[in-house]
Amino acid sequence: MKYQLCGGAFMKLTAYSVKLKKVVDIAQPKIVTMKNGRKAVSGVAAEDPTSKVFRILSDKDVAEVEKMIG
Predict the structure, then answer these.
(1) CA distance 14 to 65
(2) How many domains would you assign to the chain?
(3) Tens digits of per-residue pLDDT, 11-36?
(4) Residue range of the domain that includes 56
(5) Which of 29, 30, 32, 49 gets the most CB atoms within 10 Å of its CB?
């Protein structure tokens, strides 16, 4: 589980898993660019590696997430 100090609060990469029907932590995160040019994080659910998850990022969050992923 990765954490980043963001604005005085801890931020972790999470996304909603349709398969598991709940919010899960993202394991093996990768930043991807969609067709419309927006950035998103793609990965698998930490609880179930067969469940792929996807989270669209705001323009503010892109730089912070890039620092987290490295």
Answers:
(1) 11
(2) 1
(3) 689 999 999 999 999 999 999 999 99
(4) 3-69
(5) 29
